[in-house]
Amino acid sequence: MKPAKFEYVAPTTLDAAVEALAAANGEGKVLAGGQSLLPLLNFRMARPAVLVDLNGIKDLSFIELRGDSVAIGALTRHREIEHSPLIASRLPVMSAAMRHVAHLAIRNRGTIGGSLSHADPAAELPMMAMFYNASLTVQGPAGRRTIAAKDFFVDALTNCLEPEDIVVEIEFPILQHDEWAFEEVARRFGDFALASIALSIRRGRSGIEDARVAVMGVADTPLRLADVEERLGEIEVDGRTPDRFSEWVMSSVTPNSDLHASAEYRKHLLGELARRAMRTALAAKGAILR
Amino acid sequence: MTVNVSVTVNGIRHDVSDVEPRLLLSDFLRETLGLTGTHVGCEHGVCGACTVLMDGHSVRSCLTLAVQVKGAEIITVEGLGTPEALNVLQAQFREHHGLQCGFCTPGMLMTGEDLLRKYPHATDQEIREGLSGNLCRCTGYQNIVAAIRSAAAIRREKA
């Protein structure tokens, strides 16, 4: 349970990091927080020839308001996002999701760029990237380009990056909504989710003017449920809304069975979490669920 | 290829040459520096036994390379107190019988220290969430929670 040998480089600029990665000819791996990569190295499931440590690149760590978006540097630790007042006020759903991200010691080290690149289908940050319709800026040998979250996550633990690309920053557009909810169930607090849902809405006179819905743990990537969002805009809100929403969410997913839960259970769980999320979102304004 | 690592551990500066980049911090502490208080359980970040403080924050020493702690301040369980003078948290672990076989204890203490610093007013639920990344196979969690709750109260009084 020790890593195999590798060359270690610790560049202090992003350009040097991309160069080192390109020089490794596909045998290189980026080390950020290391909370997903180090287990793979310890198990020798990954045996890169070169490890490019990004931790010495200081300008990759920031959280800043940029017009109608919040931009987060790829090397920003989970802990910093969890405790950021800016995130709490502008991206409240993400703020709530952060306390479900792994455990205290993991949040102290893990980074947003690392979590997104690892692309676990039951991890909160990839789900938040889908939920907020985030865009990722990546740098490769040919320069920088921007990738939408929906194009970034290709499959379980698979992103669309080339071997010499490095995630630089992620921009999250702020939702002009007034109510939201985040629900998750994991076998042990902080473990990967069996199922989770994020919901945010803007209330109109009698209905929902705008809605955003994302789920995870029920597919090979996190999913944004655009059809459900649209249907929410077409109904009058009443006491049956949470149940209808729950049914729509359940009928939108086809989870797989695995060691941790059967497909039926995951679907049932997601339906229940959806019901709770909608109750929370609607109850916040009061007097809607008579 | 080897590297030099200069790091402060429990207040003492160490300059170590010929460190292999693949050496884990957990093995560096135990094998190179002889600080065997840090325990190694799962070696893939699940059990929490190897938790130490790095620049004031709890980290898994099995998920950190020794080469990555250059210039950092590390605190291990040996840095908390001595058998003659336990620190507040250690004393409360003893008081509340917060350990049985003792294998998970160094990790529980280091996580507890981080928890008390970050969340001095933690509720029982928050203490449990904070400890969720540390496994005790004697399953003595109740007393560990009681020890941390009590240490938090004592520190708040002193503050």
Q: Radius of gyration of chain B, rounded? A: 16 Å
CATH class of the largest domain in chain B: Alpha Beta
Helix content of chain A: 25-40%
Class of the largest domain in chain A in CATH?
A: Alpha Beta
| Average pLDDT over all residues of chain B | 97
CATH topology of the largest domain in chain A: Uridine Diphospho-n-acetylenolpyruvylglucosamine Reductase, domain 3
Largest sheet of chain B: 5 strands, mixed
- Strand order across the largest sheet of chain A: 4-5-10-6-7
How would you state the average pLDDT of chain A, rounded?
95
Commentary on this structure:
The complex is a heterodimer of chains A (290) and B (159). By secondary structure, chain A is an alpha+beta fold. Chain A folds into three domains: 7-53, Uridine Diphospho-n-acetylenolpyruvylglucosamine Reductase, domain 2 (2-Layer Sandwich); 58-173, Uridine Diphospho-n-acetylenolpyruvylglucosamine Reductase, domain 3, CATH 3.30.465; 180-283, 2-Layer Sandwich (Enolase-like, domain 1). Chain A contains twelve helices and 14 strands. Chain A has helices at residues 14-23, 37-42, 78-82, 85-90, 92-98, 104-109, 112-118, 124-131, 149-152, 226-232, 241-251, 263-283; strands at 7-9, 28-31, 50-53, 63-66, 69-73, 135-140, 143-148, 153-155, 158-159, 166-173, 179-186, 193-203, 208-216, 223-224. Chain B is α+β, with helices and mostly antiparallel strands. Chain B has two domains: 3-79, Ubiquitin-like (UB roll) (Roll); 88-158, DNA polymerase, domain 1. The model of chain B has no long low-confidence stretch (mean pLDDT 97). Classes of the chains: A alpha+beta (290), B alpha+beta (159). Chains A and B meet through helix 2 and helix 6 of A and strand 4, helix 3 and helix 4 of B.
